[in-house]
Design brief:
This protein has 15 helices and 13 strands. By secondary structure, the protein is α/β, with parallel strands linked by helices. It holds the Pfam family DHQS_C.
Length: 380
């Protein structure tokens, strides 16, 4: 067990406490012993926001735990997936808060994956002009990336994460025991964010990941702990490379994820996005073929997709990229990896580099062209 902290974006407010406690079941005594839920008022009623998958597998256990901790909860259950990261779902949970009489002393407790985290955070940052927020992420993706953040967002039909707010969670519990009900696909999907950290910041971490064994619980706990620690270091330093690392491969990956309409997970989409971005870096003369191959090798080792599906028109992908919040003029602004562990920086030290339509579409074409020969490419 360990407790880490990352700074609040508002310096006068306390940092977020992140507790790493890997247990096979929810244990009220263990949580009480580490002071988890110390920010939750015992006299108020609190919103427990989760999705129907989590509710089906552990809602009764959660109710028992909160009862033992003397925390009064009102469960609000949403459907799983991106359809709950919308204004419509947000309105639904707003009504639930108003109906149950939530007050300024209440906490929003988000228990679920990345979508539940975003919806919980957006709710907590806006209802009654701000409530306390506690997160218990239950997916690899949420544990290694989404929950370790103060940014929360909803989607629009035009693209992902176009509505957003800022609120630092008071407390986050990282428990790999929650992951035992996940199937292999979603464990690997979440580890794409760990690979992202390794590609941008840590060759040694990439070496550990190359020993891929997601079915080994001890290995998985170690990867999660390193991923969380590396992201917290990046958030606390807040340098240009650290901020760029957080969204590496996401400009292209988000566009592919948006067009996939649920057929690809977030990690699967950004795996492709990072491979295309590596193609882009090589085309622009910013990296070398060894770095490009390292990208394809890393994701292939985890059985993650690396090639843009044939059914997606490349110009359509570019059209969706134009909705990215960092798009400037007619250029996509995105980070690029120079060598494993190092991002490219311009003469001013900035790591968000401009890329126009022509070179981005050419990178997409090169990625697609590797579809039938990717096995030979990564082995050579």
């Amino acid at each position: 067990m360990s407790i880490l902290e990352f700074k609040n974006p508002y310096p006068s407010l306390p940092p977020t406490k992140v507790s790493l406690l890997h247990t096979s079941k929810l244990d009220a005594t263990a949580l009480a012993n580490i002071g988890f839920f110390s920010t939750v008022d015992r006299e108020s009623t609190h919103i427990l926001l989760t999705d129907s998958n989590v509710a089906a597998s552990m809602l009764d256990e959660l109710k028992d735990m909160f009862n033992n901790l003397r925390i009064k909860i009102h469960p609000v259950i949403v459907v799983p997936g991106e359809s709950s990261k919308t204004i419509q779902a947000y309105t639904h949970v707003l009504d639930a808060c108003a109906d149950v009489g939530i007050t300024k002393e209440s906490t929003v407790i988000g228990i679920g994956g990345g979508v539940v985290k975003d919806l919980s955070g957006f709710l907590a940052s806006t209802f009654l002009r701000g409530l306390n927020l506690v997160l218990m992420p239950t997916t690899v993706l949420a544990q290694v990336d989404a929950a370790i953040d103060w940014r929360h967002s909803l989607n629009l039909p035009h693209g992902k994460n176009l509505i957003g707010s800022i609120l630092a969670p008071a407390e986050i519990l990282i428990n790999a025991g929650f992951l035992k009900s996940l199937n292999d696909r979603w464990i690997r999907d979440g580890l794409a964010e760990s690979i992202k950290i390794a590609l941008c910041q840590s060759p040694d971490f990439l070496t550990l990941l190359s020993q891929a064994n997601p079915s080994d619980f001890t290995w998985l706990c170690r990867v999660i702990d390193i991923s969380v620690s590396e992201k917290i270091v990046a958030m606390n330093r807040d340098s240009a490379p650290d901020q760029a690392m957080l969204v590496y491969g996401h400009a292209i990956g988000h566009a592919i994820e948006h067009l996939a309409e649920g057929e690809l997970g977030h990690g699967e989409a950004i795996s492709i996005g990072m491979c295309v971005t590596a193609e882009l870096s090589l085309l622009a003369g910013l990296s070398d073929e060894l770095t490009l191959k390292a990208h394809y090798n890393a994701f292939t080792a985890f059985g993650l997709p690396t090639i843009v599906p044939d059914k997606y028109d490349l110009h359509q992908i570019w059209s969706v990229i134009r909705a990215d919040k960092r798009f400037r003029g007619d250029k996509m602004c995105a980070p690029a990896v120079k060598t494993i562990g190092t991002l490219v920086a311009d003469g001013n030290g900035k790591c968000f580099l401009p890329f126009g339509a022509e070179i981005v579409i050419r990178a997409l074409e090169l990625n697609k062209s590797r579809g039938k020969t990717i096995g030979k490419f990564v082995q050579n």
